[in-house]
Amino acid sequence: MQLHFSPSMRSITISSSSNSGNGGYVGDLMKIKVAARHFSYRTLFHTILILAFLLPFVFILTALVTLEGVNKCSSFDCLGRRLGPKLLGRTDDSGRLVKDFVKILNQVNSEEVPAGLKLPESFNQLVVEMKNNKYSTKEFALMLKGMMEKSERDIRESKFAELMNKHFAASAIPKGIHCLSLRLTDEYSSNAHARRQLPSPELLPLLSDNSLHHFVVSTDNILAASVVVNSALQSSLKPEKIVFHVITDKKTYAGMHSWFALNPVTPALVEVKGVHQFDWLTRENVPVLEAVESHHGIRKYYHGNHVTGANLSDTTPRSFASKLQARSPKYISLLNHLRIYLPELFPNLDKVVFLDDDVVIQQDLSPLWDIDLHGKVNGAVETCKGEDKWVMSKRFRNYFNFSHPLIAKHLNPDDCAWAYGMNIFDLRAWRKKNITDTYHAWLKENLKSNLTMWKLGTLPPALIAFKGHVLPIEPSWHMLGLGYQNKTNVNNVKKAAVIHYNGQAKPWLEIGFEHLRPFWTKFVNSSNDFIRNCHILE
Ligand SMILES: *[C@@H]1O[C@H](CO)[C@@H](O)[C@H](O)[C@H]1NC(C)=O
Ligand SMILES: *[C@@H]1O[C@H](CO)[C@@H](O)[C@H](O)[C@H]1NC(C)=O
Ligand SMILES: *[C@@H]1O[C@H](CO)[C@@H](O)[C@H](O)[C@H]1NC(C)=O
Ligand SMILES: *[C@@H]1O[C@H](CO)[C@@H](O)[C@H](O)[C@H]1NC(C)=O
Ligand SMILES: *[C@@H]1O[C@H](CO)[C@@H](O)[C@H](O)[C@H]1NC(C)=O
Ligand SMILES: *[C@@H]1O[C@H](CO)[C@@H](O)[C@H](O)[C@H]1NC(C)=O
Fold this sequence. Notes:
The chain is an alpha/beta fold. It has a domain at about 100-170. The chain is built from 21 helices and 13 strands. A 7-stranded mixed beta sheet has the order 6-5-4-7-10-9-11. It has a 3-stranded antiparallel beta sheet with strand order 1-2-3, covered by helices on one side. The chain has a 3-stranded mixed beta sheet with strand order 8-13-12. Helix 3 packs across helix 5, helix 5 packs parallel to helix 11 and helix 6 crosses helix 8. It is elongated, with a radius of gyration of 29 Å. The two termini are about 35 Å apart. One 2-acetamido-2-deoxy-beta-D-glucopyranose binds near residues 525, 527 and 528. It is an enzyme of class 2 (transferase).
């Protein structure tokens, strides 16, 4: 932000060249004309008038600076610092008067605004009151401080409201995707071809053939599933070796089945299963899930009002955003927890690659099956050593509450975390370990302590359960963070074998990042009738 006074002091130009990372906000250029006849450089009042014109803009800036946490100064200090160098350097009268005023501002800075002080609603009103009531400079400065603090609070609150809206935008299903699901479900009942067996009966034995490459993806988003499968096939050098096991919930099953029945993936194979079709998935086998879903505290926690109860004065937008993220209903959905039951769900398979539905495969993944896991269960990318400060600096301390005695006793805060999204699992090794039981035991423990051990869904208990059973793989296999921030390095995106839109900004949502979206949309088949009729990608 720059301030410019015309030599005659008849106009003030405020231009903003600041470029905030997430979302532009300040108007580019504001020119404020100051009527010449009001100007008498000799009185303090007119200096105050200038400042009153200026301050609203400075307010916005300092409040944002404070919000973004760039500068840990009270906004009054910021004001002095920002006004200071620009104005104090002036040697003419206006500079001197502003200097006097800044001195008063600095005095007031260390004082509390009296609780009962009646604040004007706007700066216009402030100026009017100044004219009528002849406040002392100090009273004026106090009033400014009060207004400033209030405006800062308002801006904070609107920032939080914006984050809330983003959260709901991220949880809601876009119309096009909903349409796709409805039409495909309809097709299932009206079109015998959409109901055909998948894969055809003579190929069924291949579903448990361990010489093939088995992928598992679990999702209720048909479009996302189609992109995962499409991208895997198109990037593969040996598509005839690929078998996809798509797991979905009961309500999406018919639509998901129609899609893959009508869009064959030859020479690969695909199987679509609903959770209701796994005999193994009974309440007895998955006791914790039932507990998770019915625990009253949890329902409230995930579906309640997120703003009440949040202490806005000691919360930063970033920590608030991550809290919202943690409360996303997807973290209690069965589809999301399924990944811990892979050995039981696929009793005949030796090795699978488990993919999240927000990934895109850009290279042949067959070498993953050749990685020697050295007896470990889970080949995963570690998330504590990357360049990207936001996504790649996660250690156990970022996921767990180390004030909790059980956590402090069993875990090391400096242990490196790893990521879900693309993992190669050795199911044979897994079956010999006690991983699923450990997962259950800790999930129960966390429920007992009212979710004070960790907040965020499936990863933390998995970090505990897989401890000692993880083999770190090359980071270029799996690049994370495309749904978190705009600063993702596009060159790295191009080079990564699998890219992962983890975070809120999914590529199928409006809030997705435009320049990262094409890596995903290029695998959406825009000539498909269902995609066209549902106006997806338009
Ligand atoms: C919110 O946090 C501030 C600063 O930590 C504290 O002074 C205040 O009492 C807290 N408010 C509530 C309602 O917890
Ligand atoms: C498996 O883990 C559970 C929970 O941690 C424990 O109770 C059980 O004794 C373990 N079983 C074996 C065989 O290690
Ligand atoms: C958990 O919350 C419930 C109700 O809010 C409370 O009665 C119980 O004492 C809490 N338990 C622990 C371990 O904090
Ligand atoms: C962390 O654990 C301690 C001890 O159980 C508890 O008092 C505190 O509230 C927990 N913190 C969070 C954020 O849950
Ligand atoms: C993200 O960054 C790219 C290039 O760095 C830019 O073109 C785009 O407008 C930015 N988008 C948002 C939402 O900030
Ligand atoms: C896209 O859809 C059309 C029509 O359904 C189909 O003929 C074509 O093979 C599909 N292309 C790909 C790459 O799947």
